[in-house]
């Protein structure tokens, strides 16, 4: 039998995670969601056929697993509302909020609880997600296995031993899809500027990302070797790669990931 899971917050990521669970034949009646925004609540209930209420306490009560999928900015208030119930029921606490630490969650919920912090990403919607997971010392082997089972329904799971690195995971794979979309956007725009029709630019750019990603995942070759194979001596790719390198792409990527990591740390401080 599947454990009862309470989703606190039914926004984009909760929807992707629930979609993944349902695709794996997880029992619908074991999932309940608390969501205050009426259109989101009604859409979730009608499209996924699950119970969605506007009451965090009612949804959480009696659930073995509480999965917090609200924004970091509201997490402390939401935890305060559930503190008494958390101490009475001692659920397994899961959170996908960027920046908010397991120690913060545990203390806001009254202390002494098993907490798993997970950083998913939006490809979870297609079962192609990447999840970094960190467990605090209260989480036992069975709870770890349960957390992993739930998130495996949405994609790959990697355990992170040092919680400080969860902000790096957020900067890499949590935010990462947006970097890929940005590069795709910029490549399309450049091709259109050279005269390619927008539809052809989109089709060719998108398939280039799909094909390249499949090669990364399936070829067994390193990313460097795959890049070198495209790059003929003194050819067109060499000209473009030289422009990227001379323009400081690697330095820029480091700066971008450093900024995302710093923002994760700041989210923790600002919302304490
Ligand atoms: N969007 C992304 O790519 C990723 C987001 N995350 C994290 O996931 C969390 C949720 O993000 P999204 O789903 O993108 O945001 P979202 O805004 O789509 O979802 C949050 C939901 O929480 C609901 N909510 C607001 N106040 C509430 C309350 N007091 N009680 C219960 N529910 C409440 C909102 O109505 C909304 O539907 C965030 O903490 C974010 O850091 C993590 C990884 C990736
Ligand atoms: O931008 C954010 O803060 C969230 C966390 C990772 C992806 N989206």
UniProtKB/TrEMBL annotation:
The keyword NADP applies. GO terms for molecular function: pyrroline-5-carboxylate reductase activity. It is found in: Cytoplasm. The keyword Cytoplasm applies. Transmembrane segments: none annotated. Residues 4-99 form the Pyrroline-5-carboxylate reductase catalytic N-terminal domain. GO terms for biological process: L-proline biosynthetic process. Residues 163-264 form the Pyrroline-5-carboxylate reductase dimerisation domain. NADP(+) binds at residues 8-13, 69-72. Keywords: Amino-acid biosynthesis, Cytoplasm, NADP, Oxidoreductase, Proline biosynthesis. Its main location: cytoplasm. Its EC number is 1.5.1.2. Pfam families: F420_oxidored (PF03807), P5CR_dimer (PF14748). NADPH binds at residue 56. One of its GO terms (cellular component) is cytoplasm. It catalyses: L-proline + NAD(+) = (S)-1-pyrroline-5-carboxylate + NADH + 2 H(+); L-proline + NADP(+) = (S)-1-pyrroline-5-carboxylate + NADPH + 2 H(+). Pathway: Amino-acid biosynthesis; L-proline biosynthesis; L-proline from L-glutamate 5-semialdehyde: step 1/1. InterPro entries: 6-PGluconate_DH-like_C_sf, NAD(P)-bd_dom_sf, P5C_Rdtase_cat_N, P5CR_dimer, Pyrroline-COOH_reductase. Belongs to the pyrroline-5-carboxylate reductase family. Catalyzes the reduction of 1-pyrroline-5-carboxylate (PCA) to L-proline. This is Pyrroline-5-carboxylate reductase. It comes from Arenimonas maotaiensis. The gene is proC.
């Amino acid at each position: 039998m599947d454990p009862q899971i309470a989703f606190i917050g039914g926004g984009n990521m909760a929807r992707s995670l629930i979609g993944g669970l349902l695709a794996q034949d997880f029992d619908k009646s074991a999932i309940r969601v608390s969501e205050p925004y009426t259109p989101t609540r009604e859409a979730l209930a009608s499209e996924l056929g699950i119970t969605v209420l506007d009451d965090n306490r009612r949804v959480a009560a009696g659930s073995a697993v509480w999965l917090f999928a609200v924004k970091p900015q509201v997490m402390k208030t939401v935890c305060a509302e559930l503190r008494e119930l958390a101490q009475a029921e001692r659920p397994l606490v899961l959170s996908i909020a960027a920046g908010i630490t397991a120690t913060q969650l545990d203390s806001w919920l009254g202390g002494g609880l098993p907490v798993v912090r997970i950083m998913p990403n939006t490809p979870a919607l297609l079962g192609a997600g990447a999840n970094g997971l960190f467990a605090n010392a209260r989480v036992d082997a069975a709870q770890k296995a349960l957390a992993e089972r739930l998130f495996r329904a949405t994609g790959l799971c990697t355990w992170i031993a040092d919680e400080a690195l969860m902000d790096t995971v957020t900067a890499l794979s949590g935010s990462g899809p947006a970097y890929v979309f940005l590069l795709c956007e910029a490549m399309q725009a450049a091709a259109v500027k050279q005269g390619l029709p927008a539809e052809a630019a989109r089709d060719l750019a998108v398939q280039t990302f799909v094909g390249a990603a499949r090669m990364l995942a399936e070829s067994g070759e390193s990313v460097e070797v795959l890049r070198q194979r495209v790059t003929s001596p003194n050819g067109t790719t060499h000209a473009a790669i030289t422009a990227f390198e001379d323009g400081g792409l690697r330095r820029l990527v480091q700066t971008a990931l450093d900024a995302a990591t710093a923002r994760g740390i700041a989210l923790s401080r600002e919302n304490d």
